[in-house]
């Protein structure tokens, strides 16, 4: 079953069930069981053992990110109890005086949390939610703003954790294919303009925040938020962080109650990342340091330190033990469903990956074709693989080596375009996939159900992807990255304003 057309069955069934039933636990469970049965040739006991082993492997290998998510949930509740979030909200509404300004502030804060996309999703959701709530911005809109300016920003900056991993992949590819025309960092930097989806997504999210253009379900959610002050939909189940409004909040909260724990989280994360990275071999440059570091461990230490600091401040203020314990429990309780979803998504991704979905799809494009079609083909296949397994790095690790192998024997000048197309496809797939960790983390940070976040972000992601496809077609036949990028940007701007005018006509009829 591995590496054949049958490997597509589990991801297709899982995604179809998610869309049809809107029940993540059921859909992911079915995908896990079906994938394990296919992998083990329908032997039930072997499949059970396989699922158990992968579950243990995920807990051991990815347990830190699960704990970090719980720590962020606890931190969010403690910050609410301290009154720090309320103090920040009062300050934020003085600085951001309109709905548009609160949304723009959310986006641009992402340029200061560039070093890790997972942290960016959780941190900005926790901090900015109190500000955008004041202006009745729906949590669906907040999660879209956050998610669309996390990984895209991280991939524009070569000294982020995500970029460092990509650079390390490129370095291995160049060496294995004896490509001497480029260095790894050079190839990555040259590929940034050809990452059409990332660039058009950032442009699009800024336009949406500034103009208030809402597409599909987002229009319904925003209308409900503005007219009825209902910021999220509870019909799909428990909303992460929704119980915060029921928690007590101190009246003597100060900005420092928020800033100290958050700054500690950032500083401890950076210091730990630098310490771990500098201990590796050849860590003489920022890029080598980032390649050698462990960002998840760094985030875990940062989360622990931030929680300790806010607890100490609350104890100094003589906060009752009852309030502290109930707040910590509330943070765990409201975050636990999302941690469970993240765990199931990671198990699903591993099982689907073991079936060889990437290898099968890649094999379909290694035939006779015009090289002009390669950029758009690699974008589409990378997008589908990333959508299926929910992993940017996993997809890049599969597709970049394949692309390099093809262009090394045909036309090496297309290498940069192929790298950009793969990265563009992986981010689109991640933005659209219910299996993506950042989809779930953006939902947790924004306190919205992952299904609502996925369905409201999808129209914007599709619009950027269509603009990117047009751009990659132009790139392929003109062999010009700049022309392709220009066409993509024009296409996304025309597309968003065409949809806006169409909505206006529908309202008037």
Automatic annotation (TrEMBL):
Organism: Ureibacillus chungkukjangi
Stated name of the protein: Tetracycline resistance efflux pump
Transmembrane segments: 12-39, 65-85, 144-170, 190-213, 258-279, 299-316, 336-358, 370-390, 402-428, 458-475, 481-499
UniProt keyword Transmembrane helix present: yes
Domain Na+/H+ antiporter NhaC-like C-terminal, chain residue ranges per copy: 153-477
Entry keyword Membrane: yes
Membrane topology: Multi-pass membrane protein
Subcellular location: Cell membrane
Annotated keywords: Cell membrane, Membrane, Transmembrane, Transmembrane helix
GO cellular component labels: plasma membrane
Lineage: Bacteria, Bacillati, Bacillota, Bacilli, Bacillales
Domain of life: Bacteria
């Amino acid at each position: 079953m591995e590496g054949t057309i049958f490997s597509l069955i589990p991801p297709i069934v899982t995604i179809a069930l998610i869309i049809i039933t809107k029940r993540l636990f059921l859909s992911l469970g079915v995908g896990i069981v079906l994938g394990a049965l296919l992998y083990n040739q329908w032997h039930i006991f072997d499949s059970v053992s396989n699922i158990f082993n992968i579950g243990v492997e995920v807990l051991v290998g990815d347990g830190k990110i699960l704990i970090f998510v719980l720590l962020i949930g606890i931190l969010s509740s403690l910050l609410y109890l301290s009154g720090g979030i309320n103090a920040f909200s009062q300050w934020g509404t003085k600085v951001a005086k309109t709905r548009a300004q609160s949304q723009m502030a959310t986006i641009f804060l992402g340029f200061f949390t560039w070093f890790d996309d997972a942290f960016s999703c959780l941190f900005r959701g926790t901090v900015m939610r109190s500000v955008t709530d004041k202006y009745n911005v729906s949590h669906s809109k907040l999660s879209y703003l956050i998610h669309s300016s996390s990984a895209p920003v991280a991939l524009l900056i070569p000294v982020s954790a995500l970029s460092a991993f990509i650079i390390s992949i490129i370095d291995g590819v160049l060496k294995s294919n004896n490509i001497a025309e480029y260095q790894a960092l050079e190839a990555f930097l040259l590929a940034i303009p050809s990452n059409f989806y990332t660039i058009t997504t950032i442009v699009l999210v800024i336009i949406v925040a500034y103009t208030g253009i809402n597409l599909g379900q987002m229009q319904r959610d925003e209308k409900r938020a503005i007219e009825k002050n209902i910021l999220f939909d509870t019909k799909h189940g428990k909303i992460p962080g929704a119980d915060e409004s029921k928690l007590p909040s101190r009246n003597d909260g100060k900005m420092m109650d928020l800033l100290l724990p958050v700054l500690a989280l950032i500083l401890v994360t950076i210091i730990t990342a630098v310490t771990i990275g500098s201990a590796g071999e050849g860590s003489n440059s920022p890029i080598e340091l980032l390649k050698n570091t462990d960002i998840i461990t760094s985030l875990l230490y940062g989360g622990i330190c931030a929680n300790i600091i806010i607890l100490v401040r609350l104890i100094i203020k003589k906060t009752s033990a009852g309030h502290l314990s109930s707040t910590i429990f509330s943070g765990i309780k409201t975050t636990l469903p999302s941690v469970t979803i993240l765990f199931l998504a990671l198990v699903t991704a591993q099982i689907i990956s073991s079936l060889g979905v990437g290898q099968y799809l890649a094999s379909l494009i290694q035939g006779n074709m015009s090289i002009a079609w390669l950029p758009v083909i690699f974008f589409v296949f990378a997008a589908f693989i990333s959508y299926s397994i929910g992993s940017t790095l996993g997809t890049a690790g599969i597709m970049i080596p394949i692309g390099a192998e093809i262009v090394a024997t045909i036309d090496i000048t297309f290498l940069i375009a192929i790298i950009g197309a793969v990265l563009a496809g992986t981010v689109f797939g991640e933005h659209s996939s219910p299996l993506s960790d950042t989809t779930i983390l953006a939902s947790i940070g924004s306190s919205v159900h992952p299904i609502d976040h996925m369905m409201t972000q999808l129209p914007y992601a599709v619009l950027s992807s269509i603009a990117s496809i047009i751009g990659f077609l132009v790139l392929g036949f003109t062999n010009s990255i700049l022309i392709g990028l220009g066409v993509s940007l024009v296409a996304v701007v025309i597309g968003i304003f065409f949809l806006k005018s169409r909505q206006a006509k529908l309202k008037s009829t």
